[in-house]
Amino acid sequence: MTLAAIPEVLPTSPSHPEPYFDTMSPRNVTALVGKSAYLTCRVRNLGNKTVSWIRHRDIHILTVSSYTYTSDQRFQANHHPETDEWTLQIKWAQKRDAGVYECQISTQPVRSYSVTLNVVDLSDNEDLPESERDKFYSDGSDSYHKMFADQVPTATILGGPDLHVDKGSTINLTCSIRFSPEPPAYIFWYHHDDVRKNPPVISYDSSRGGVSVITEKGEITTSYLLIQHADLSDSGKYSCSPSNADVASVRVHVLNGERPAAMQTGSAGLSQSAFKICIFIIIIYMYCTMYLSIQLQPLRVRDR
């Protein structure tokens, strides 16, 4: 498929009107990180042609008509016949989604209408142009209302950032996904062993065995990664990657009888403190005994 497309073409023949784009559709769209982005093109006289959305940077077909042609389930196509609008919705937008998208009509040659998506983070004031800032706080746009209606899904691995387990025990990692309007479509676990730059998805059918994942979906979705009979090779960084949230990571240390320096320091400090307390109690006891002995000595003399 070529991107050398005719931008907008008005109908040239009254008897056989050709599809064309309504150029009033916005060419630039700004979305918030973690919210939904809505890219829209309005097509007149579509007839028996189809409308597709293409991501420009990799020429990837995202949708054709109302069908989605990508494994990333954040992308969804919506058609509004009453307005001739074809909307590409990108759920839980991330900064990597920014770029040019093309709405294409299946004519010969293909006709294309490009829309530029900007994804900004309101926590970074410099990230949002001043000209756009007021739009996010105004009441005049449905798209911005939709963006604010979304919650920002967040993934967290409990007990991080470091976990220490004994060799031979079970590694139990718990990843919680909160603030999600619906459970994630999938959750992948990765193991970075400090050797591979591109860590593989943890396989439950690997030759290692003893690896299982339990996922409970609900208002808070929880995924449990269980690795039995932990070995030193199981040490490393583990990441929980839901379809609708940023990656959460934790570093696991499998110990072969040793203890982390922090734990050793804590134990030593505790032993020394206990020893000092015992010495102090003994000194107080001896002092009290001597004091009482001195005080009672005159009484014993009188009694004689």
What does the model show?
This protein has 304 residues and is an alpha+beta fold. The chain folds into 2 domains: 20-149, Sandwich (Immunoglobulin-like); 154-255, Sandwich (Immunoglobulin-like). The chain has helices at 130-137, 142-149, 261-303; strands at 20-21, 28-32, 37-44, 51-55, 60-64, 67-68, 75-80, 85-90, 99-105, 111-120, 154-157, 162-166, 171-178, 187-192, 211-216, 221-227, 236-242, 248-255. The strands form 4 sheets. Strands 2-10-9-4-5-6 form a 6-stranded mixed sheet, covered by helices on one side. Strands 1-3-8-7 form a 4-stranded antiparallel sheet, with no helix packed on it. The chain is elongated and about 125 Å long.
- Classify the secondary structure makeup into a structural class: alpha+beta
CATH architecture of the largest domain: Sandwich
CATH superfamily annotation of the largest domain: Immunoglobulins
Order of helices and strands: EEEEEEEEEEHHEEEEEEEEH
Under CATH, the topology of the largest domain can be stated as Immunoglobulin-like
Total number of beta strands: 18
The gyration radius over C-alpha positions equals 33 Å
Low-confidence stretches: 6-13, 137-150, 262-271
Calculate the terminal CA-CA distance, rounded to whole Å: 120 Å
- Indicate the CATH class of the largest domain: Mainly Beta
Helix content: 10-25%
Strand order of the largest sheet: 2-10-9-4-5-6
Number of domains: 2
Q: What shape does the CA trace take? A: elongated
Note the total helix count.
Answer: 3
Question: Mean pLDDT score, rounded?
Answer: 77
Please outline the major beta sheet: 6 strands, mixed
Percent of residues in β-strands = 35-45%
